[in-house]
Recover the amino acids of this structure.
């Protein structure tokens, strides 16, 4: 196995919303449909069995009408702290592990998102394909969703 740090891409965000609200956004299928996927894409939650060993599957509607499928299996869940899942984003990214880490900071949430790739080469390829912009756009939508929800 190559060096884990060389196989991992990470994004960090601080949301102006309590950790419970950010957690709900990740774990409630109605909420997931509101923010999952880059700006301009609609997401349909096909399957969402939020438990260790449970499966998830989402379909994102591409602007050209095609569907982009993302799916995986939950490996580890620690309430309000951590969600670890396998993930395939067909046809672009397959065989990765997603790590969503939540840290309460008063009324804010510090959030770290790691994607662990099978090899350093694959990790580098994914970074060049636009990982930071793609996931950055997703988490901009999440930020907007949780911060708007926090104000209501």
């Amino acid at each position: 196995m190559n060096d884990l740090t060389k196989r991992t891409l990470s994004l960090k965000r601080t949301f102006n919303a309590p950790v419970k609200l950010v957690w709900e956004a990740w774990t409630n299928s109605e909420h997931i449909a509101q923010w999952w996927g880059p700006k301009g894409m609609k997401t349909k939650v096909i399957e969402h069995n939020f438990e260790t060993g449970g499966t998830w599957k989402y379909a994102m509607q591409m602007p050209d009408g095609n569907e982009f499928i993302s799916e995986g299996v939950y490996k580890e869940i620690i309430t309000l702290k951590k969600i670890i899942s396998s993930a395939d984003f067909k046809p672009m990214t397959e065989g990765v592990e997603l790590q969503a880490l939540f840290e309460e900071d008063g009324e804010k949430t510090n959030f770290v998102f790691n994607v662990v790739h099978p090899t350093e080469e694959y990790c580098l390829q994914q970074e060049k394909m636009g990982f930071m912009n793609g996931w950055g756009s997703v988490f901009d939508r999440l930020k907007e969703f949780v911060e708007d929800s926090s104000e209501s």
